[in-house]
Design brief:
Blueprint (H helix, E strand, L loop, with lengths): L3 H6 L3 E5 L5 E4 L26 E5 L6 H15 L4 E5 L3 H5 L8 E5 L2 E4 L7 H7 L4
Parallel strand pairs: 3-4
Antiparallel strand pairs: 1-2, 3-5, 5-6
Length: about 130
Amino acid sequence: MSDTKWLLIQGFEEVERLQNGFSLLALKTNTSAENPCFKECVKSGECPEKKGLVVYYTNRCPFTEYYVHDSLVNVADERGLVLKLIKLGTREEAQAFLTPATIFSLFFNGKFITTDLSVCIAGRFDKIVLGK
């Protein structure tokens, strides 16, 4: 993905923004065409699991599986938090996913927290998830 500011300078327009911070940009070559939009499944910013941590991830980044299965598992265990890992394996699962970011998405008590993989590291986890 590219920098949003740069894309806006290049003529892209924000056509939709979600409450959790995701924005959809478009560069329309046909001004009468409908704007693209987010699927309904990403608009709530919540996941069905309402207790503890839930991570949805894919192998689109070669480091995701390592950080999720090693670092984040240890961080959650040290803090006594329930952790559920869900690996998306098909295009259909990704397209029906709960956020536009399918590489890594962390939810805490049902609410979307971040797509930043650095949250798997103890110090970043405490700051981002626990607010310490």
